[in-house]
Structures are given as C-alpha cells and as structure tokens.
C-alpha cells in the first residue's frame, strides 16, 4: 500500500489542542500518584513503627528535598482531582462541545495552578 499522505514524525512541530494537553497531564499525574503512594506508605509505616521512627521521619521531612517531593505529590493529586471533577461534569452532559471542552481545559489549568501555588505556600 503506497500512501501519498504526508508523515510528520517530528514531535516538536506537532501542535496539539489544549484539551490534549490537559488529558496527557491527567494521565501523567495519575502515574505519579500511583508510584508516589509507595513513598507515602513507607513514611506512614516508618512513623507508626516506633517513636524513633517518627522522629526520623520528622527530621527527614524538614529537609528541602523532602518538601519538594511532598509538594510534587500534592501537586499531582490536586491536578488529578481538578481534572477528574471536569470529567465528572462532562459525564453529566456539561461542556461536551468543542468550545466547552476548551473552556473546561483552561479552567482546569487555572484552578490547578492556583491550588498548586497555595499548596507550595502551605508546605514551605
């Protein structure tokens, strides 16, 4: 089969709509949460094992790297939550048009950015 269609394999030149970016970010945040749960469960196990374990975890959580990891996990959770609410709203029949999808994606990005910034202020 000899197709005359042009093939663009340069991913840097492909322009995706905003709805695609929010969908891709929703999937990425889900993967981050999946693996981040292991870190959080390890910290929970350490804190509940003994008083020394709790003290070690408390000392570890005061480091800037630990705060960055917690902020990253919280950011993924907040974005995933806001994008999930958007999906629930769309399941109810609101915002299913092309214009509604674009507006919903913009709202998701703005609300998520505000919540992530507030989470950063709260953590630090």
From TrEMBL:
Membrane spanning residue stretches: 24-44, 65-83, 103-123
Keywords: Cell inner membrane, Cell membrane, Electron transport, Heme, Iron, Membrane, Metal-binding, Transmembrane, Transmembrane helix, Transport, Tricarboxylic acid cycle
InterPro entries (alphabetical): SQR/QFR_C/D, Succ_DH_cyt_bsu_CS, Succ_DH_cytb556, SuccDH_FuR_B_TM-su
Location of the protein in the cell: Cell inner membrane
Membrane topology: Multi-pass membrane protein
Biological process annotations from GO: tricarboxylic acid cycle
Keyword Ligase: no
GO CC, any one term: plasma membrane
Cofactor note: The heme is bound between the two transmembrane subunits.
Pathway info: Carbohydrate metabolism; tricarboxylic acid cycle
Molecular function in Gene Ontology: electron transfer activity; metal ion binding
Residues the record lists as binding heme: 80
Top-level division of the source organism's lineage: Bacteria
Principal place of residence: membrane
Cofactor(s) this protein cannot do without: heme
Assembly and binders: Part of an enzyme complex containing four subunits: a flavoprotein, an iron-sulfur protein, plus two membrane-anchoring proteins, SdhC and SdhD. The complex can form homotrimers.
Family affiliation: Belongs to the cytochrome b560 family.
Protein function: Membrane-anchoring subunit of succinate dehydrogenase (SDH).
Name under which the protein is recorded: Succinate dehydrogenase cytochrome b556 subunit
Species of provenance: Pseudomonas pohangensis
């Amino acid at each position: 089969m000899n197709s005359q269609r042009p093939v663009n394999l340069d991913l840097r030149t492909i322009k995706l709509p905003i709805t695609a970016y929010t969908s891709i970010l929703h999937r990425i945040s889900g993967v981050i949460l999946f693996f981040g749960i292991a870190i959080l469960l390890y910290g929970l196990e350490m804190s509940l094992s003994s008083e020394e374990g709790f003290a070690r975890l408390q000392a570890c959580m005061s480091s800037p790297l630990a705060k960055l990891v917690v902020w990253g996990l919280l950011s993924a959770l907040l974005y995933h939550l806001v994008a999930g609410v958007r999906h629930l709203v769309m399941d109810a029949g609101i915002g299913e048009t092309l214009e509604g999808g674009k507006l919903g994606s913009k709202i998701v990005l703005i609300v998520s950015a505000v919540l992530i910034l507030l989470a950063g202020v709260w953590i630090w």
